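Please check this protein record:
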Amino acid sequence: MSPAAAMTPPAFRAAREGADQIPGQARKTTLHARGRKTALHARGHQGAPAPNPYARGLRALTLATPLAMAIALGMGFFYAPLEAEQGFLQKIFYVHVPLAVVALCGFVLGGLLAIVYLRTRDPRWDMRSYVVIHISLIFAVGTLLTGSIWAKGSWGHWWVWSEPTLVSFLIIFLLYATYQPLRFAIEDPERQARYAAVFAITAGAFVPMNYIAVNLSTAYVHPRVFGSTSNLPGSMALTLLVSVIAMALLFTTLCKYELTAKHTRFQLRALRRRLLEAGEAASSRGALVSPTPPTAGAPAPTLHRSGA
């Protein structure tokens, strides 16, 4: 034995000699640990959530929508001429009418998306139909508020029950106001989506029928914007068109924001559920391999020294 070996403590010397004797076993253990780590890393990348599809183009819409709204408001205040009878009050026309047009088109679009859901049974189409109807309801509230302000300034009354255009829009709004209570009164997700789709299709078919019935009416005081009786000047018509486009951009942006938020929430729930399942599986494996404690009265293990 060399002097250095004689100065090494017996425990360290035995450990070093044992390691020298089984290099293959240590190498296998190291390779196994590295392979397990690589597999876990690959599994983690495989289970990573996919990018949100609704966030695509959201930044461009977020920048374009305020710009379009500013242009529409600027044209309404500075480009379109003053109306001869109502004067400055008529400027609310460029907010009220686009809100109504986009809201009614959104209700119809919600019914079309519901048809796609019933054909494919894909829950993503049900979520899109729900979001479109939800945002359309908000726009309908804005339509009723601006219409009441305009009616008060123009006719001297907040509401005129003899006007078919106002009453018909209120009926459509009240019809769709029952959509969410009906939907969330059903606990089963599949049945909820199916009943909501049938409601959206039926109500969406009622919107154009109601519009045609109102246009066939002869006793009305509400101004006609679309149709043969419309007499808007070119500057007013152009301002109205720009306002409708800006309001449609706002509608699309709000829908994409809500869809993005809901999709992200679903991803977080799925990840949380996956983490809980992984934690339960790890705890169950740990319980299976945990050593059993010695029973009372069992002989304690003894160490035998070699050569004794």
Q: What stands out?
A: The two ends are 23 Å apart (CA to CA). Residues 2-8, 18-23, 25-33, 35-46 have pLDDT under 50 and may be disordered.
